[in-house]
Amino acid sequence: MSAAHLQRPSLLLHPYGRWVLPLLAFCIIVVASLAFAHRLRQESQDEARVRFSMDAALVTVEIRDRLRHHAQFLQGLRAFISSMPEVRQADWLRFSSFQDPRTQLQGVQAFGYLPAVQPQQQPQFEAKARKLLNLPEYEVFPPGRLEPRFPVLFVSPSEGSNLRGLGYDLGSEPTRKEAMDEARDRDNVAMSRRLQLILDQPEQSRPGFILFLPIYANDQSISTVEERQRALRGYVFAAYRMSDFMQTLNYSRNPYLALQIFDDWGYDSLKGGAQLALLHDTHPERQTDSPAPLSEERELSFGGRTWLLRFESRQSPPLFSFQDPAGIALSAGICLASLTALLLWMLSTQGQRAMHLAQGMTQKLEQSEQIFRLAAEGANDGLWHRDFRQDSWFFSERALGLLGNPEGAPDQESGNILLPLLHPDDAPLLRQALEAHLRQRAPYDLELRLKRPDGSWGWFHLKGQATWDEQGTPLLMAGSISDIHDRKAGELELRQHRDRLQDLVKERTQRLEEALREAREAIQAKSEFLANMSHELRTPLHAMLGFASIGLGKSEGQEKLHRYFLRIQQSAERLLSLVNDLLDLAKLEARKMEVRPRLQDVQPVLQQVLGELDPLLHKKLLRVDVRQMCTHTRALVDVPRFAQVLHNLLSNAIRFSPEGGIIRISYSATRLPRGRRASDQGTLDALSLCVEDQGPGIPKGELEAIFDKFAQSSRTRTGAGGTGLGLAICQEIMIAHRGRIHAENSPLGGARLIAVLPRESDAPQQEEMPS
Question: What is the percent of the chain where pLDDT is above 90?
Fold first, then answer.
């Protein structure tokens, strides 16, 4: 025999050498499992960050597009008012009837017209407005301002609280006046700061904002700021409640996305930072002291104002879960490491086994990068109209500018200058849309490609609305044209990004499924190996028990030899009990142990187990107190398996109770959840059996861990015996019964182990007939 073979037993028998191999194997497998689980977890977090950033970008784009759309509407409203020297109520009502708040003006509380009224002309204006609106109580308020006044003359929808704003001078309030001056000087849409609408009661705190667009006299120049101030004729406006505006958006109703919108009031030199006013908060009830798992800030500029959009994720991913692939891989690796170390420990020693399973993972969430910063600018549309009676066309200067001032523009009345610029593939689309609008009155709203001066094709948005006579013949058609080439390019890039993200998700899903399959194969191989090893160990143990029994019979009168054989028999029986527990546990985990519960009385099973344990009770002078706090003690049980559970629970109670103590057993009625799936609802009638001892109890942090394999309470793991498998087997048997088992501490001292059995099932059960 070689020297290596001679030295190996001495290493295993060394007081410290017996720890080396189990500890080394455990550490190697756990480290590998942690690394693999960390990689899976990191991939899952990266995917969540990409989805969060995508959702934030979609919300920002949708808010920007909605504001642009409403600004385009104000441009059309201004063109309508500028086209007539005096706006009559009938003209206003006819124009308002064409605006559908559910589709075209989603989120708008009211829109209206503010004429410019000089202070000396106010009485004449009020008299004329009363007659025009048929509203005797109409008057301009608040009184006392000497500057030009801008009262609300027309407002739509003309109902409810909107009528409260008729006559209100919007220029009398500094916040509104600031936005009106900004719109007047820039000849563009201007947005106000956060304010409260005059439509709301003073006690209502509902933040809102207003969009203003100036109207100038048609016969005056507006090239400079001074000229615009002199030519100012009035304003058109659109008023919003922030909460109502946000409810009309699709992506902002994402239940997993919290959004705060702040109005940037500029830099505060006293406070040394930006001054922000909260406009909207989708989830004001959330806790501000706990950081969100994912957050991102974006800026949105529109109408001379800047909004700060702060996004947070409401769904916090669990630090560790046995349901995700990372948790499954980590738990499988820890189980494999524990079993490997346990087998090595069993080969090197035959004393007590105790394994401590350490669980815990701490991950820091990284803040996602701020991407897709989009800046919105004011609406920039051109106007056009067609007179079917004279077969003439008109295009505004802005429309001609968008089209690149094509040749023949001065003779635009002779025909549609769009046709020579139209892409050949879009010609049928334009013709079909026009025919559908004129014949069926379908919406005339389409996107098409037109040739630019440099020869490239650009995307444009064409909208229009026709009027018909009583016979249904079209008379006039007017609309707008806007350049949307940048938006279409962005949508194309977004689709490409989405397709790439779908490919990445599919690839990572395949890798996770492969890892899950490998983990399940490892768990199955572990169970089969443990079952085979347990069978191999039982054969020599039975031989040892047989020879020990013969030796006890033949050693009568030889006290020393008789004591040796008795120790051999006790050690073999103890080892056989451990092997049997391991075999039962392997069968339960592999679902190879049949459990067939039937509806019958549990009381006889308890009496049988108490009879088997009677010598141990007498040895420690223990008394058993059985109390029944329910009408009957019938439940669905498999007698041999439930007897094994009672045997383990009572053996623990006997082991940890002091001499002369009392073991209390009580029955009570309770309820169990119906089924184990999330979709299952309702509860089942159940029987609860509680075993209470007077021992040292269980530390609060170990009430769940004592049901783990090879786990014992820190107060009882020395001096009380046991392998740490009994409660793990009890838990598997109770799960097979569709029941449950848990532990708690008694207020009077000691521990309580409570087993709950169902009394009914979704399927009909066979009831045991009384003898």
Answer: 24
Q: Give burial (CB, 10 Å; 0-12/13-18/19+) of 656.
A: buried
User: Would you state the pLDDT for residue 530?
Assistant: 64
pLDDT for res 554: 74
Q: At what angle do helices 325-348 and 485-554 cross, to 10 degrees?
A: 20
Q: 141-189, pLDDT tens digit by residue?
A: 998 777 899 999 999 988 888 888 899 999 999 999 999 999 999 999 9
Which of these, 91, 163, 81, lies nearest to 114 by C-alpha position? 81
Q: Bridge-partner residues for 156, per DSSP? A: 111
Tokens of 486: 């940048």
Distances in Å between the alpha carbon of 228 and those of 104, 170, 231, 732? 30, 19, 5, 84
Report pLDDT for 585. Answer: 63
Confidence class for position 579, pLDDT limits 50, 70, 90: low
Tokens of 388: 């079917």
Helix (H) or strand (E) holding 524: helix 485-554
Query: Hey, what are 684's tokens?
Result: 């089942």
Task: Give 485-543 pLDDT, tens digit per residue.
Answer: 888 888 888 888 888 888 888 888 888 888 888 877 776 776 667 666 666 666 676 66
Instruction: Show the tokens assigned to 12.
Output: 């295993």
User: pLDDT of 684-732, one tens digit each?
Assistant: 899 999 999 988 888 888 888 788 776 666 665 544 445 667 788 888 8
Q: Which position has the token pair 């009528």?
A: 163
Return d(Cα 466, Cα 385) in angstroms, integer: 9
Alpha carbon distance 712, 102 (integer Å): 66
Q: 420 by DSSP, 3-state: which?
A: helix
Six token digits for residue 352: 């007590």
Q: CB of 399 within 8 A of CB of 384? A: yes
Burial (0-12, 13-18, 19+ Cβ within 10 Å), 164: middle
CA distance 430 to 742: 73
- Count other C-beta atoms under 10 Å from residue 417's C-beta: 19
**Ranges 91-100, 116-125, 325-334, 637-646, most confident:** 116-125
Tell me what pLDDT residue 364 has: 55
β-pair partners for 328 = none
Would you state the structure tokens that stand for residue 213, as one six-digit string? 């667009």
Separation CA 268–CA 151 (nearest Å): 33
Helix spans in 207-324 (H)? 225-231, 242-247
| DSSP-assigned states of every residue in 548-613 | HHHHHHHTTT-HHHHHHHHHHHHHHHHHHHHHHHHHHHHHHHTT-S----EEEESHHHHHHHHHHT
Crossing angle between the packed helical segments 485-554 and 559-589, to the nearest 10 degrees: 150
Other CB atoms within 10 A of residue 322 CB? 10
Q: Which helix (H) or strand (E) holds 460?
A: strand 457-468
pLDDT digits (tens, 9 = 90+) for 207-261: 999 999 999 999 899 999 999 999 999 999 999 999 889 888 886 667 778 889 9
Q: Report the half-sphere exposure of 525 (CA within 13 A, side-chain side).
A: 10
Beta carbons within 8 Å of 456's beta carbon, 6+ residues apart: none
The mean pLDDT value of the chain amounts to: 79
Strands 444-451 and 457-468: antiparallel
What distance in Å separates the CA atoms of residue 69 and residue 53, rounded to the nearest whole number?
A: 24
Q: What is the 3-state secondary structure (H, E, C) of 572-589?
A: HHHHHHHHHHHHHHHHHH
Upper half-sphere CA count for residue 426 (Cβ side, 13 Å): 19
* In the block, residue with structure tokens 């394999």: 709
Residue 490, both tokens: 């962005």
Instruction: Give me 33's structure tokens.
Output: 């499992």
Q: What is the pLDDT of residue 378?
A: 45
Classify 321 as helix, strand or coil: coil
Between the two ends of the chain, the Cα-to-Cα distance in Å is: 68
What does the pLDDT read at residue 254?
A: 76
Give the model's pLDDT for residue 679. Answer: 61
